[in-house]
Write a structure and sequence with these properties.
Blueprint lengths: L1 H12 L3 H21 L16 H18 L4 E6 L5 H13 L4 E7 L7 H6 L1 H11 L2 H13 L5 E5 L2 H4 L8 E6 L5 H11 L3 E9 L6 H4 L13 E2 L6 E2 L1 H11 L10 E6 L2 E4 H5 L1
Parallel strand pairs: 1-2, 1-4, 2-3, 4-5
Antiparallel strand pairs: 5-8, 6-7, 8-9
Bound molecules: S-adenosylmethionine.
């Protein structure tokens, strides 16, 4: 397969953009169908299955490894809010299985139902694709497929439902680590942060992604108009960001925190939050 890719690459470069896109999409569709029929994990571009930014992975890994050192021999319990088709779930799961085989569990909370705002559905093509995959059930089906073929399903608990309904039913002071990556609209992020807080043990880590810009860093308020969108271009800086995440984290912390390609992490210490990425260095 790699040999064929190598031979075709110089020709592919010369193709017009739309044709190149069509061929790429066709290749991804075939890879997805092949994975479904051959018990393989799939996290390619079809159905926007690929959600993890490669630049963020090393900080995610360092953060969880550091936390693993802190907890020593206790079983490790991770909460994930927003799992989509499982790329982040299986990133955590495979790492935990390598480091502390069988002494971990992951709880996934996801509704796998449409959640995009009407403004986003009008404008954002990636959001439209994701919404369609939620609507026709393909995202959930691919999550279940990935779960089955991962061989780790006995350690992964799936809670299907809206996070504001599921999180209050989970046990307080239970989790060592909570990864918040559900809806990025302000009210939802705020609610996920609030409901996850009591679920974490003292010294537990609250983390998430998509914190590209911080209102406190910019020295300006997140405008109400921006909050209708999951993701948009900041008018002054030109940086793409998630206004709901920026506002919710800004309110929680009241000062800028460290973020690595959008990944952020806080440690719960005596009812306060400490910026875990900055004390990590
Ligand atoms: C950005 S995706 C998660 C990506 C995933 N963490 C990854 O890296 O592969 C957001 C997910 O949040 C879920 N979601 C959105 N709003 C939700 C809500 N109120 N309750 C539960 N899940 C929600 C969506 O169904 C979607 O699967």
């Amino acid at each position: 397969m790699n040999k064929i890719k190598h031979i075709l690459r110089p020709y592919a470069k010369r193709l017009p953009g739309p044709l190149k896109q069509f061929l790429w999409n066709s290749k991804e569709l075939l890879t997805y169908l092949y994975a479904l029929n051959n018990e393989q994990l799939y996290f390619g571009t079809h159905l926007c299955a690929n959600q993890l930014h490669p630049r963020r992975i090393s900080d995610m890994e360092q953060t969880i490894l550091r936390k693993l050192e802190e907890i020593k021999n206790r079983p490790f319990r991770l909460l994930e809010v927003g799992s989509w088709v499982g790329q982040s779930t299986f990133f955590w799961a495979q790492l935990l299985q390598r480091k502390i085989p069988d002494k971990w569990e992951i709880h996934c909370v996801d509704a796998w139902t449409s959640y995009a705002s009407t403004d986003d559905l009008k404008n954002e093509s990636r959001i439209k694709h994701m919404d369609k995959a939620l609507h026709n059930g393909r995202a959930y089906k691919l999550f279940l497929h990935n779960l089955k073929v991962s061989g780790l399903s006995d350690k992964i608990v799936v809670h299907r439902g809206r996070s504001e309904n599921i999180l209050p039913t989970l046990t307080n002071n239970y989790f060592d680590f909570a990864y918040i990556d559900g809806s990025h609209y302000y009210q939802d992020v705020k609610s996920d942060l609030a409901y996850s807080t009591p679920l974490l043990r003292e010294d537990g880590i609250l983390c998430g992604d998509d914190l590209e810009l911080q209102s406190l860093e910019l020295g300006e308020q997140i405008q109400a108009e921006w909050l209708k969108f999951d993701y948009l271009k900041h008018p002054k800086t030109g940086v793409y960001f998630h206004p709901g995440v920026s506002k919710a984290i800004g309110e929680l912390m009241q000062h800028p925190i460290s973020a690595s390609s959008g990944f952020w992490a806080l440690k719960k210490m005596q009812s306060n939050w400490v910026d875990y990425l900055s004390i990590n260095k």
